[in-house]
Design goal:
The protein has 261 residues and is α/β, with parallel strands linked by helices. The protein has 7 helices and 10 strands. The chain folds into 2 domains: 2-172, Leucine Aminopeptidase, subunit E, domain 1 (3-Layer(aba) Sandwich); 184-243, no CATH class. The radius of gyration is 23 Å and the shape is elongated.
Length: 261
């Protein structure tokens, strides 16, 4: 059964819709994980006609199944896919981290409808695979002329255990926002523009955002920020974001610098 989630990731001009299925579905790309055992044999867990074809294809291309190893194969015409992407799992001690890393490695260069079929033993592992797949699918924002980067339009996660997408989504969306800010061209991302985007991102949330312009900074005695900002034609900003949930008993302060001129 295919379950649709209202998870949509829109960065760099693209959007990804995420779903979970307990069985394979037709798509543009099928992502599989391959594992090398102690005897050097590479297994992929796919059975039947497709499994036999895949074993032969992996052997012919010399795929070793190690961490960071990937192979993108043209799928046979009789299959439900155009391309099959095989990613190595490695043999590190932290299985969840390895699964997350393998999923991200596999989806980084893919586009269209992608089915990720990486076996999981628990909800935690399925969630790690979902997180890695989504992080890998994020594309860097670009202001080059022409079409933007091809994106994964639909991502189907195949596993017995349903991933906790509501837990994954906030972190993935935050990474996407930060990547877009980091890769934004400096003549556009001025201190004022950065502050404006923070305010925009806070709309509809429980966050309270206060922006101190150069006049407020002077009144508040923020000489350090003003001194550094004096070297630019665009004055500095100090952005304070507050989250005050009801019943909170502890106070946490996170201080960071967004260097932009």
């Amino acid at each position: 059964m295919l379950r649709r989630y209202p998870t949509r990731l829109a960065y760099a001009g693209g959007m990804t819709t995420v779903s979970h299925s307990r069985s394979l579905v037709p798509a543009d790309v099928l992502v599989l994980v391959a594992i090398k055992d102690a005897n050097g044999e590479v297994s992929h867990g796919v059975r039947g006609k497709l499994g036999r074809w895949l074993s032969d294809a992996i052997d012919r291309v010399g795929f070793d199944g190690g961490m960071d190893s990937t192979s993108v194969l043209p799928a046979p015409q009789w299959s439900d896919y155009r391309t099959i992407a095989v990613v190595g799992f490695g043999s590190g001690p932290n299985r969840i981290s390895n699964l997350r890393y393998a999923a991200a490695t596999a989806t980084r260069t893919l586009s269209g409808h992608v089915v990720v079929n990486i076996p999981s033993r628990s909800t935690a592992e399925a969630t790690a695979i979902a997180e890695g797949s989504l992080l890998g699918s994020l594309k860097t924002m670009t202001r080059k002329s022409g079409d933007g980067p091809a994106v994964i339009s639909d991502l189907t996660l195949v596993s017995r255990h349903a991933p906790l997408l509501d837990d994954v989504r906030p972190g993935v969306e935050a990474v996407g926002v930060v990547r877009d800010l980091v890769t934004e061209v400096p003549n556009i991302l001025s201190p004022e523009e950065l502050a404006r985007r923070v305010v925009e991102l806070s709309n509809g949330t429980e966050l309270r955002v206060d922006v101190h312009d150069e006049h407020a900074l002077e009144r508040g005695g923020y000489g350090g920020i003003l001194g550094i900002g004096a070297g630019s034609s665009r004055p500095p900003r100090l952005v304070i974001v507050r989250y005050s949930p009801k019943g909170a008993k502890r106070h946490i302060a996170l201080v960071g610098k967004g260097i932009t001129f």
